[in-house]
User: What shape does this take?
Amino acid sequence: MSLKKKERFFYMPSFLAILQGKILEKLPKPLFTYDQYVTLSHDSISEGSQKLVTKILKQDLSNMKIITSEYLKKFIDRV
Assistant: This one.
């Protein structure tokens, strides 16, 4: 089933998206936040994206796989 509506996309400059995120995150149930802008403005799937995320967050994420696997082992043992 299709609604057969035309998709509408428009370009929004980064500064407007940042401003929109900063303003909308103040609402009780925000539709869009600055954190979402930061997340969506960078490719998180491509090869080498861990280095980019590390640079953005200014925090080393190399041990994340080890920590996650240990956490999941503890969680699965409790189920």
The helical segments are 14-24, 34-40, 49-57, 64-78. Residues 64-78 form the longest helix (15 residues).
